[in-house]
Amino acid sequence: MTDTSRRSFLRGAAISGAGALVGGRVAAQAAPDPAITELQPWQQYLGEGVDARPYGMPSEHEAHVVRRDVPWLTADPVSSVNFTPLHELDGIITPNGLCFERHHGGIAEIDPGAYRLMINGLVDTPLVFTLDDLKRFPRENHAYFLECAANSGMEWRGAQLNGCQFTHGMIHNVMYTGVPLRLLLEEAGIKTAGKWILPEGADASAMTRSIPLEKALDDCLVAFKMNGEALRPEQGYPVRLVVPGWEGNMWVKWLRRIEIGDQPWHHREETSKYTDLLPDGQARRFTWEMDAKSVITNPSPQAPITHGPGPTVLTGIAWSGRGTIPRVDVTLDGGATWARARMSGPSFDKSMHRFYYEFDWDGRPLLLQSRAHDSTGYVQPTKDMLREVRGENSIYHNNGIQTWAVNEQGVAENVEVSS
Question: What Gene3D superfamilies has UniProt attached to this entry (predicted)?
Fold first, then answer.
């Protein structure tokens, strides 16, 4: 069949097919669609060969799917944050190149051949490991979320940032590969007085955090891979600590030293920072676990409804630092009525969960919310419920229910509703 006769055939088929049922709806377009009836440029010439892109990259048409920052949040980008584009993603795994970044002294570029990890303090035998040494220990693979304690922190006093990338994007979820920390600690031998560990980073900020020994021996990993490949430099290459379910500041990147002690150290990042200021001026300390939380990623301010009234797919993510998420409720009317969302995909401990809710949008305004239930029975609270207990002076651990207002044109905006 010649190109001319093929186009004539397809054009005729498209016209004769107009009015047929498509997905339960009548196709409204009767005119020929050039995207179907005409040969497209990519059909008329050979593409690049297998060696043209040795490390695969996204399509040029996805160039807008990137991490973004909010310039006014911090004074200097070397001690700042950018955000995961949650509204552009699906499933539960965050691509390595889109995992949010939070740095306190910029990215440390470390030669893996010169990398060393020291374990000292209250141990029987102080030890130093090379990267090759670590890889000789038994390793494990786990999918965990990492959430900055300041995620949604700008929203404590009211709606601030217009997009779930900016309100909730200080989180990612990847498959970590690493050595259980307990194996390294057992190798060094912990003295009876040892109750705490102090991991330290090799970056210019020398990040440190106190972690109870019980957690270190439970599920912490010394990780060197994420989603199957080596850690990215901005994620701690060549080695970082993984502290499942606990605030991201404790997941020390560029891990160089672990000291064993008999009490917490109370360094800067666990005293003046990463504590929750209460209305009376006192601060909660050691609020490590990240409570159950969820957000609708589509529709949302950066992902409006563009197809008009009719069948609509709502989707989002939920997570808990205390277990799994067996259930998420969604509301289209600001909490007046709730429906149970459909969970889809794997349900891992301390990992993201994906939910969907399909509905027919009638074109009227919507007030969208999601409410997560975790495996301990905890239910995600409203922002007003949080403020009743903790006031409005906090920055960290805001897991309140998020509201998007969608207008008749399908445009979404960050708002709050009283509850």
Answer: 2.60.40.650, Oxidoreductase, molybdopterin-binding domain (3.90.420.10)
Residue of 358, 372, 292 whose CA lies nearest to 328: 372
Q: How many residues does the chain have?
A: 419
* Residue ranges in the chain modelled with pLDDT below 70: 1-29, 419
Of 241, 266, 284, the position where a domain reaches its end is: 284
Cα 121 to Cα 179, 276, 322: the distances in Å are 20, 30, 30
Residues 41-69 pLDDT 10s: 999 999 999 999 999 999 999 999 999 99
Separation of CA 281 from chain center = 31
* pLDDT score at 418: 77
Note the pTM of the prediction, 2 decimals.
0.92
Same domain? For 135 and 280 the reply is: yes
Q: Check whether residue 128 and residue 237 sit in a common domain.
A: yes
117 and 242 co-located in one domain? yes
3-state secondary structure of 201: strand
Position 419 scores a pLDDT of 65
- Taking phi over 0 as left and psi of -120 to 50 as alpha, with beta for the rest, 400 belongs to beta
Which amino acid is it at 366? Answer: L
Residue 111's pLDDT is: 98
For residue 239, give both structure tokens: 């080695």
pLDDT digits (tens, 9 = 90+) for 145-155: 999 999 999 99
- Cα–Cα distances (Å) from 360 to 32, 332, 340, 357, in that order, read 28, 11, 16, 10
Dist CA 142 CA 176 (whole Å): 5
d(CA 156, CA 86): 20
Q: How far is CA 166 from CA 63, 115, 148, 289, 393, in A?
A: 18, 34, 12, 22, 20
One-letter amino acid identity for 160?
A: Q
pLDDT digits (tens, 9 = 90+) for 282-291: 888 899 999 9
266 and 179 in a single domain? The answer is: yes
Output the pLDDT for position 15.
41
- Residues whose CB falls within 8 Å of the CB of residue 289, separated by 6 or more in sequence, listed in order: 245, 246, 247, 321, 322
Q: What does the pLDDT read at residue 48?
A: 94
Q: Which residues contact 230 (CB under 8 A, 6 or more apart)?
A: 224, 237, 238
Phi/psi region, residue 313 (left: phi>0; alpha: psi -120 to 50; beta: rest), is: beta
Helix runs in 284-336, H state only: none
What are the CA-CA distances from residue 411 to residues 160, 169, 362 (Å)?
A: 17, 20, 14
In contact, 117 and 255? CB cutoff 8 Å? yes
Q: 20: which DSSP letter?
A: -
